[in-house]
Write a structure and sequence with these properties.
flat, mainly alpha, 2 domains
């Protein structure tokens, strides 16, 4: 009963927070900002309680299927964004963060199963650490996606000489670009560590450090995409829209991997 209630209330809490952040984004009314921040913290607390209750109910961290992992992923995303954008004092990005949290947490609780079975080979602390590192990486990449999207909206207005809706409300291009790159870098570091830990787990479980399983291959492709963007930034001075486009491409590939490849292209690395 409790878990059912939390399934309903956890995405709705993010929705209410997003509504108040949206009103603030449009009106710049500090009263709505104060309410939005309170609701945002409340939504994260409710999400944390949901994950704790779910963990006790199933007897292990909620990582047994893609939708359990998606909820953990969204919680990390919520916490990590507070770190990455901590200098954004006007909270102009709050609506967009809360909106993503509402949509993806909603998808998670809609399809999540408390009866998903965690294979014996994966009932290991090392596996949980491997997944958590990857989810932190993916959460950072998701933040990069959002920042890149805002960057593209803003530069479109500037290039069109129509400085209006986004120009008046978003932080500067330089600020968004730097935060986007910071998020990519954080994500790449955690994702790399997660992949390395996973390879050692694979060696014990499957007798090999690597196999061209669909899930593993898709994870490698995502890692390569972000590696290219980092090399391009450092070596070839890529900036602006090029880096932003890599953030978008990487995010959509990760989402496709988590929701489609994991579910429908089973292999030795599968949540099923």
């Amino acid at each position: 009963m409790v878990i059912t209630f939390l399934k309903v209330i956890s995405p709705l809490a993010y929705l209410v927070s997003a509504i108040f952040f949206y009103i603030y984004f449009n009106q710049r009314d500090k009263a709505y900002l104060k309410r939005a921040r309170f609701l945002d913290h409340t939504a994260i607390l409710i999400h944390a309680i949901f994950l704790i209750v779910l963990t006790f109910e199933i007897g292990h961290l909620p990582l047994a299927d893609a939708f359990q992992a998606l909820s953990v992923f969204m919680f990390i995303f919520a916490i990590l964004n507070k770190i990455i954008v901590r200098e954004d004092k006007d909270y102009s990005l709050g609506f967009f963060y809360s909106g993503i949290l509402f949509v993806l947490q909603g998808i998670s609780v809609l399809f999540i199963s408390e009866n998903a079975i965690l294979p014996d080979v994966l009932k290991d602390v090392a596996f949980e650490i491997h997944v958590i590192f990857n989810l932190v990486g993916y959460a950072a990449f998701s933040s990069a996606f959002l920042l890149a999207t805002m960057y593209l909206f803003l530069i479109h207005e500037i290039k069109s000489n129509k400085m209006g809706y986004f120009y008046d409300r978003l932080p500067s291009l330089a600020y968004l670009e730097q935060l986007n790159y910071n998020a990519i870098l954080i994500g790449f570091i955690f994702n790399s560590i997660g992949i390395l830990i996973g390879s050692f787990i694979g060696s014990s479980a499957w007798g090999t450090y690597w196999t061209w399983d669909p899930k593993l291959t898709s994870a490698l492709l995502a890692w390569i995409l972000y590696l290219i963007s980092i090399i391009g930034k450092k070596r070839y001075r890529w900036h602006g829209r090029r880096i932003a486009h890599f953030s978008l491409l990487g995010f959509f590939w990760i989402l496709f991997s988590m929701l489609i490849i994991t579910q429908f292209f089973s292999g030795i690395h599968s949540f099923k």
